[in-house]
Input
Amino acid sequence: MQLISRHATQLLLLFLFFLVGVGACQEIGTARALVDSDSIVTFSKRVDEVHLLFTVTDPHGKFVNVLRQEDFHLLDNGLPPERVYRFQAGTDLPLQIVLLVDISSSIRYRFPFEQKAASILLKRVLRPGIDQASVIAFGTDVKEVQSMTSDTKRLNTAVHKLVPGGDTSLYDALLLASRRLHSSPSGARKVIILLTDGADTTSRASLKESINSTISSDAVVLVVDATVPSENGTKGQSFLEELTAASGGAILPARHNEELKGAFQTIEKVLRNQYALSYRPSNFQTDGSYRSVRLTAQKRHWVVRCRNGYYAK
Output
């Protein structure tokens, strides 16, 4: 009987230890990510912590990455944050990039140049063992042709095996990209680089679903836009403007090869000049509601690109 009692006591203690461990994980929230199975990167995040990625340009359009925390004014749902956890200029936090490639028939004539430019960008931007990217192609159907990896050779192979054809399921593609980024490590910089030349034509998902999913993923969307001038002001162009405004991203014109080259160079500059800010909002409740964000620079005429809100998950 003594032996049985001793075993029962040990089991009870183990069970209590397990409960305490679970409670701690629920309070802090820990995410682990495999980096090509070579190493493990661990990030911790409080459930009441909000991450912002943003860039600042001066009145001449040049990126600025030497500003301090006191150079900015932040309002979350109209109130200053209760506490700022971290502020970094020119942040080197790990990147999680989804390259979202439009392979509809209309881009066939310029597709080889897009493939080359995209491969060069990933090779220049990704740091081995730190940053990762995946490739999702969309025409009529949407397919992830390369999952998250830091291996630029595998990414290059994935990009160059794409074949143009079909219609444009843009909303569905954004939905898949956002879902992939939902599982990214907390604290990583999440970026969707979207190469497209037109509006959605065949998605099952709605415009609203794609934008809400993108906002929930915390991703910044950078659009390499090859639409022709006659499509300015159309529903497709309005969607791209709404998408980038919501995520703190930008639309980069790429109607000919020289513009396309410049667009990819700008993306590289964006990724190298991002600020990272994490904070605890005032009166924060994890009720799923949408909370507005307004971040401005104290200096006049300086432009801050930052997402304009998030869902309190």
Observations:
- Residues 222 and 236 are 15 Å apart (CA to CA).
- The two ends are 50 Å apart (CA to CA).
